[in-house]
């Protein structure tokens, strides 16, 4: 019997802040699940959300044929089936994701409750459970609050190269009358904030809110605080930390580092009563504040110092005596537009128990968590008032077991906790994070035990949506290291490293890396927000920086680093079927392409490049960068190849956006650049490009610049160069972004596998065998100057993770969003088992195969409302069985063709077990 039941989950984890749109998610399935909020669905910054749902069915070949959406202004009306905001009625459509809200116009503060039912070829569902969203404050006039702060430091602060600025504590007491119906708080706290109502912390986010260029954009958060308020006296309290707003190195390099100012806040609490009246409490000069509190300093590079003896119990509750506090000052707004935060908040996502603690010297201990991570230590301690515990963080140890901190540069990465004395105290910092595996503990009263500490892993609350493991232990370890490296560097924006005095959102690190990451984490919102950061950093002439937000003034005009802007937009479309980033950013992307063409293109060759194929494995393990010119690739070749490739993407975007004139312009440009590229760099006699590096040959081959008649010969040169390197990697950051998929696409997945599974230098496996638990910045991070090497960098991953999922596991989308898939795992000698899964917008896709000398067994799952072409390795169709039956006897499988030793089959949704016996 076919079963279709409904439930609905608002997956705010999939909310996309793209042209004012959002993506809520309803699931229709077999179980009646609770409504699980993966992110705060309140106060979204759009009046035109997009709605999506997943269908779950135990019947094969389940496809939607129609749907009906109800959106109501109250839960009661929705329960009664009254879609007073929108009743789509029955819509004949197979679309189940990114459905545009088409109901009554929504305004600021609108509350919306919705549900969906669908018709499929296998039956009709009941109504799903309900979910909700609300609209934030969309208009400047909605804000009655005033910016408050204090634009100077205090006697115990230091505004210098190494800033020491204490946290600011703000409070406001107010009275409420009986009959509280609803209360909503809107807040911006720059750089970071904590919000309390009547002594209770609101939300479980940390390091709130997200980093931006605050002169361009400022993100606010919305909270339902109804249950925290009461009739009579109430109090709001906030704590402001420095974050990226009060620059971590002010007055240091003013031409390089962008400054914003001192911490400030905007807060508006709106209370609705049952009698229809309203009351608004706003930030203004009626608030009181102090900076003489327990958080004595907080600096992302240097750490946090907390003096528990200076706590003021009850400061965030009504009745506290704040007569000695200062009066809040009205201050200048930061300048950026107020927008709702649509990307996930940062949270404590995991905890790690340390594996050892050892005495280094008198009163000093070394704690080992066994895993390089980003976050902080939570400590349990009991001692006397005034005892100080100092925690210093590092990724590695010296030979004498002391911390190795040279690679942290001038980041002090030190937390200090001063005890108030008496009962056990539990503490962790709140406005900083550290990248570390080891912690030096000094001043701890008594003997510290493992149970006194835990590592709290802090990153954006992105659901893990991918799983990948193989029969090869070293590859599994590499994937583990990549996983931890990726999550460590999600901090409201993609940073390069979490430990030293950098932590910057370099564009070049994520050009293709973002694609691989999207198979592991649901990073659609995260990267949609980052595209906004990039757009806001664009200068009026069209130039785009290497770092965005442009906290560093690096506008060096490369094709490769800023080109990430276009590559990420394409990734969001392909992986999440989200067209809106392309629509939103097309004009800015075109402006940048025009800028680079006009300023740097000569005879269709792009003449500007700075970084080249960054971090090619050097000729000597002691070198950081290669000095042998034969290892390096011509920067102009790289820049021109990228212009060709990006022109093709812009042509694709122009087609999508119905811009025929632009299609013609980009097509002509691509053709001209391709011809000039081959004329300048291609040797027709040897079929080599430029100096014959792997990158020099790979880029034109993979991008389609190489004439078809020469592709085989060019690829042969690539293979020969890799063989010369003893089947090891010889590409830098740029070449590695296309290497693994390039080798596989042109018929050598076995060579890609050798590179992936190597354990000798240079390789990812070399790092793992040397004890790495994340990915290094340098291939030779243990032999080159270690002061240069970050031990938690992901730029060298290139396309490895994308290759794991797309080629090794064989999970690819045909066009966008995985409605149509190609399942074609690479068959590699020595690889006996693959177990991979990926949560698409339509549901889970699985690819799990086992190879023996006698058979190939492959379990495939395709979600409802999707379909796939599966490529089963076989000599002929008759060799393939599914569930023990010949495929010719199964109505849900349609043979298509035989191709290159594969039986190509068309399947619809469901679980399949294919077998081929040899």
TrEMBL record:
Gene3D superfamilies assigned: 1.50.10.10, Galactose-binding domain-like (2.60.120.260), Immunoglobulins (2.60.40.10), Maltose phosphorylase, domain 3 (2.60.420.10)
Query: What keywords appear on the UniProt entry?
Result: Hydrolase, Signal
Signal peptide (from-to):
1-24
Set out the biological process GO terms recorded for this chain's protein.
carbohydrate metabolic process
According to its UniProt record, the EC number is 3.2.1.40
Name recorded for this polypeptide:
alpha-L-rhamnosidase
Q: What is the lineage of its organism?
A: Bacteria, Pseudomonadati, Bacteroidota, Sphingobacteriia, Sphingobacteriales
Using the record's annotation, list all stretches that form the Alpha-L-rhamnosidase C-terminal domain. 810-884
Matching entries from Pfam families are given as:
Bac_rhamnosid (PF05592), Bac_rhamnosid6H (PF17389), Bac_rhamnosid_C (PF17390), Bac_rhamnosid_N (PF08531), Ig_Rha78A_N (PF25788)
| Domain (Alpha-L-rhamnosidase six-hairpin glycosidase) ranges | 465-808
Where the record annotates domain Alpha-L-rhamnosidase concanavalin-like, the positions are 360-459
Q: Catalytic activity annotated for this protein?
A: Hydrolysis of terminal non-reducing alpha-L-rhamnose residues in alpha-L-rhamnosides
| Transmembrane parts of this sequence | none
Bacterial alpha-L-rhamnosidase N-terminal domain segment(s)? 180-349
Please give the Gene Ontology molecular function terms for this protein. alpha-L-rhamnosidase activity
What species is this protein from? Mucilaginibacter gossypiicola
